[in-house]
Amino acid sequence: MKLSGAEIVIQSLKDEGVEFVFGYPGGAVLHIYDAIHNQTDVEHILVRHEQGATHAADGYARSTGKPGVVLVTSGPGATNAITGIATAHLDSIPLVVITGQVTSAFIGSDAFQEVDSVGISRPCVKHNFLIKRAEDIAETMKKAFHLAMTGRPGPVVVDIPKDITDPNNKIDYEYPKEVNIRSYNPRLQGSPEEIKKAVELILAAKRPMIYSGGGVVLSNASDELITFADTLGFPITQTLMGLGAYPANGENFVGMLGMHGTYEANMAMHECDTLIAIGARFDDRVTGELDKFCPDAKIIHIDIDPSSIAKNVQVDVPIVGDVKHVLVDMNKELKLSKTKPEAKALETWWKQIKKWSTGDCLRYDRNSALIKPQFVVEELHKVTNGDAFVTSDVGQHQMFAAQYYGFNKPRRWINSGGLGTMGFGLPAAIGVQLAHKDEMVACITGEASIQMCIQELSTALQYDLPIKVIMLNNRYMGMVRQWQEFFYESRYSQSYMKALPDFVKLAESYGHVGMQIDKPADVNGALKEAFAMKDKLVFMDFITDQTENVYPMIAAGKGHHEMHLQQECIPVQSSDRELA
Amino acid sequence: MRHIISILIENESGALSRVAGLFSARGYNIESLTVAITEDASLSRMTIVTSGSANIIEQINKQLNKLIDVVQIADITEGAHIERELMMVKVDAAETASRDELQRLADIFKGRIIDVSDNIYTVELTGEGEKLDSFLEAVDSESIIETVRSGAIGIARGNKSLQV
After folding, report:
1. pLDDT band at A310 (very low <50, low <70, confident <90, very high)
2. What is the CB neighbour count within 10 angstroms for residue B27?
3. Helix (H) or strand (E) holding A71
4. Residue A181 with chain B: CB contacts under 8 Å
């Protein structure tokens, strides 16, 4: 088959089984767009800003486990995509981002719309390529998908100069069946010796704790994790990125951990004697002050990326491997073992954890005359039977969504955990809804975040995506305001926007349905009404209590046992320890 | 502690910037960095001299390994090894006395005078970094016009080797 470079780009996508390309045309990619025009296998989704394209592809990838594909032009097209690429990089999401580049002869001459895309993206990609010959396109595309999807997944940028895609230069095309990168062989199986050591440690534990993260979701190891936790009967906490891998309504779940985790999860972290970290990377928002982290624990760490191990926290049993493979082996080993977990010690441990949870650290004022953001999230859970795909932006609403929605399945909770990218939620919801046409998709957002990618409302209309935007409108950048209240004596520097649009009219002008809800009594009914509109995007503007803060909270420099609980803001004393 | 890390890396454009970028992005030290092609034209060999705690060196090794273009890595300071650096020094040698002195010093340090012009001698010297430092200290500092050093390269002793 003889094809032009532009046609090879598109044919490679077909051969990879790509359904959607999220993109925006421009000079350097016009040949490729012409090739898109002549086919129907790969559907192009036209966004309104390249950042939206990367987030939409990212939402598609997170919700399906397949790679998200992006096509943008050179220069500003590529730089606009960077935020989305960095977002995917920090959360290890597989993307293949094709950026146009100026004609080879012009590279380095400060040509129109020229930017060193490979140089700019280098620190925030898993790998990137600059293609120099049309003959190299197919192999490079194959490599790009392989790198994005295997090992620790991540974004891969493929930069293609315009002349390489020349429609008049037809060359032989064959998509490679296999890919060989001599320096890249991610290890899937964990070392049997280390697994044996881990199992011995696990079975001897008196106060065990499972801490699982986004790696479990990425390796599709939810079932194996459930078997692992439930067979052992060990308490399990999950990171923001890991939510849903073990169901929130599962009997051993003690809530999310970290800065806004539950009191019981964080206390159990602090007091445990054996910590089993699975596909989690000891992020600073999870560990709090490192010197105070899990002081009594032997630590087992399972991760596919060797550089994640012993990066922030030294561990006793490192297991490099794919979470799914390692958990399968561990579950086997546990089944064969004659030793069983220490029932008596475990019972005492659970008693202590139950005691910590009696404080109901997620309580809030349910009789408030103002709408509490937590209440909206809880009602959303009810109306959607806890079965919606929920995307979020970044800030207080993101934490409320994580704390109160209760995710029971993996890949349902789609948020920018690592980079914390405001503007992520709406375009991500577009990618999710495209991949799941008949499912409920809600974007929980705030009035500040939503404005960072609000233009994508137009994309949602073009492709008839009935997303429900749940905007918790407190007229502040809520998380900034919260930190200013706590740590800057309530000097609310630049965290309040004096002018906000009329969001109902704005939604309507984009061709959607807008609603404003300002009474707690109307919340449930409005949500039901919105979700009953199955073919409409409904933009719901919930006017919430401006003073609400996210609790519990661990302040910077504090340990897991030093949480602030509720409005009184009283640090919990660790003197109520009862354990020997 | 000081470490010499040898890297076999794909001989492709941008490979060097991936390594240099990694060091600056993560705040690791680079004392010196040298790179050149190997007997296998598809591979370059890079030598980085760096320093840091055991944890940092472990992370440097892991992060380098994570770069797709990096094929092999060895921290040659972990075992017996040979280290060399090349230096060329241009020295003012207008006076006969200073010429004799320079010739003597070059002999002592097993260096060679590789270029002579009216008033200037250029000395070539190879050795470990400390030896080169000592030579510079021994030469009258006011007479030194220009110094260029290659940065260290190193190789493990015996049958240990870095190859694909």
Report:
1. confident
2. 8
3. strand A68-72
4. 68
Q: 3-state class of A143 per DSSP? A: helix
**CA A95/CA B136 separation, integer angstroms:** 53
Rg (CA), chain A: 25
φ, ψ of residue A112 to 5 degrees: the values are: -60, 130
d(CA B164, CA B162): 7
Is A113 part of the annotated catalytic residue set? yes
**Are A130 and B14 inside 8 Å of each other by CB?**
yes
Give yes or no for A180 touching B (CB within 8 A). no
Q: Are A329 and A192 in contact (CB under 8 A)?
A: yes
CA distances (Å), origin A416, targets A128, A407, B97: 22, 16, 72
Query: Does A112 participate in catalysis according to the annotation?
Result: yes
Q: How far apart are the first and last CA of chain B?
A: 28
d(C-alpha A44, C-alpha A54), whole Å? 13
What are the pLDDT digits (tens) for A192-206?
Answer: 999 999 999 999 999
A132 an active-site residue? no
Chain B partners within 8 Å of A149 (Cβ): none
Residue B68 sits at the chain A interface (C-beta within 8 Å): yes
Residues 6+ apart with CB under 8 A from B117: none
Interface ipTM? 0.92
Q: The pTM is what?
A: 0.95
What three-state secondary structure class fits A507? helix
